[in-house]
Amino acid sequence: MPRDANRSLDARFQRSSSALREALLRVLDRAELAHVTVQMIVKEAGIGYATFFRHHPSLESLLLAVADAMIGDVAARIFPDLVKGNQEGALAEFVLYVEQNRRAIRALLVGGGDRIRREIVVRATAQAGVLPFQIDPTLPPELAIRHLVAAGMEVIVWHLDREPGRSGPSKVLDDLSQLLRRLALAPVIVPLH
């Protein structure tokens, strides 16, 4: 097959992959994960049913692809602050991302069930392991990152299961930041400045 044809197929494959991920997120804005079907996703994406299965063997596979994309988005958002040693800025970016993607994150971490959540923790831990966190040098780095991710996910799940408070969006963000700081970051990170 000519090289240009391969590039065309690769580009089409990437567009279909992206369309499926975006369609799943749009469907999740309207329906709980338990009620989402492959048919709903392909209709939303405007692609054929068979195309879904060329990309993913199951809905679970698409969920994990969405999770991987979101983990990558988070890493890209917090990396610049972490490189500068601005852990507070990184935390603020993370909390803002969680709030902006509240429904999708809740669907993945709660609606996907324990098996999906465990897999997301594994994937997020691998990604977090390459970020420049200022880990307490008295702790094993792998364990510190695992704690950071797992505890952070538990705080997020708890937060997303609550109804937002009446005190306004900035108070909700401050509350989430405080919880993440105390329960996930403080035990393993050199003190935030």
What do you see in this structure?
The protein is 76% helix and 0% strand. The protein folds into two domains: 1-56, Arc Repressor Mutant, subunit A; 59-193, Tetracycline Repressor, domain 2 (Orthogonal Bundle), CATH 1.10.357. It is mainly α and 193 residues long. The protein is built from nine helices and no strands. Helix 1 packs across helix 4 and helix 8 (141-161) runs antiparallel to helix 9 (169-185). It is globular. The longest helix is centred in the first third of the chain and has 28 residues, at 3-30. It has helices spanning 3-30, 38-45, 49-55, 59-83, 87-100, 102-111, 113-128, 141-161, 169-185.
CATH class of the largest domain: Mainly Alpha
Structurally, how many domains make up the residues?
Answer: 2
Total DSSP helices: 9
Query: Overall pLDDT, averaged?
Result: 88
Number of strands: 0
> Which of globular, elongated, flat, extended, rod-shaped describes the shape?
globular
Structural class: mainly alpha
Uncertain runs are none
The percent range for helix content is over 70%
End-to-end gap: 56 Å
Key terms:
single chain; 193 residues; mainly alpha; Arc Repressor Mutant, subunit A; 2 domains; 9 helices; 0% strand; plasmid; DNA binding; DNA-binding; Homeodomain-like_sf; HTH_TetR
Helix-strand layout with pairing:
Blueprint: H1 3-30, H2 38-45, H3 49-55, H4 59-83, H5 87-100, H6 102-111, H7 113-128, H8 141-161, H9 169-185
Helix pairs in contact: 1-2, 1-4, 4-5, 4-7, 5-9, 6-7, 6-8, 7-8, 8-9
Organism: Sphingobium cloacae
Protein name: HTH tetR-type domain-containing protein
InterPro entries: Homeodomain-like_sf, HTH_TetR
